[in-house]
Design brief:
By secondary structure, the protein is mainly alpha-helical. 48% of the residues lie in helices and 9% in strands. One of its GO terms (biological process) is DNA recombination.
Length: 340
Amino acid sequence: MATISPRHDQDDNLIGWQAIIRKRGFPSQTKTFRTKRDAEAWAKVTESEMVRGVFIQRTESERTLLSELLDRYASEVVPTLKGGSRDMSRIRTLKAHLGKYAVASITSALVAQYRDSRLATISQSTGKLVGPQTVKHELGMLQRVLKKGAMEWGVLLPGGIPTLQVKMPRLPNSRDRRLVDDEESRLLGGCRESNAAWLYPAIILAIETAMRASELLGLRWDNIDLKGRVAVLPDTKNGTMRRVPLSSRAVAALESLPRNINGKVFTVTYRALAANFTIACRRGDIKELRFHDLRHEATSRLFEKGFNPMQVAAITGHKTLQMLKRYTHLRAEDLAKMLG
């Protein structure tokens, strides 16, 4: 049975009512309300949940701000993950929009409101609406943070993980954007005009190797054999090691780069890579091209050179042929030439 007691200030004025629940097998629960009726109602609901075995301790989620949970995830979890810079960008976005809310108040309705608001937002970096894939990644980050809090940090949500109850943004059909006409030379021309000397070789490597941005930025000199023309990726997105053959053009791009004292081939963040790539595209008057499209381009070129699916997968790191189909968009004209 709950104990309901009045609360007074130092002048003995009534300032509220405190409910205390002590039940065998459960931690003591205490909460203060403005009215006795509210205190009794809370106690009744909480005791009922204890009896029915569905009680969740809300105290921690009520006093923990989402910004605090995001900060903890950023300091304890993100450093152990691949693609940390993009994870940090998503965390900053979530903090800016939802950080002020207590974890307990992150409801499915609030998440849906966030989703719709983001989809209607103009991105400062691109000048276009924030894409559904970007918003999906942000909601995925929110879901991982809330799950970590609930499962390992004792920050439980009364209604469960709210992102599981929200419809994810509808994604467009897989992109089939490739370099056309003289776009490659225009893109490389834009790179040559850049103050970022590393940008030109980075673009060459992306086109020649089909590496993901995270794999390029993770390259280390001690994992590259220029004589043997092989780059070893010890820790890829798929969690497996991959040996990537290097074309003579890729080797030349690597040889043009200085050796950094920390052993990394590129010492820039994904944000810097994306920003400089966007500027190079603008200089080359290239529309609707993303850095990841270069992976599509490289993969398709491997097929056009006559590599079979197993050989292509060994180079690109795709796990299944179905995944390769998503990235490979062969030109009908090239297929016609193969037919004779």
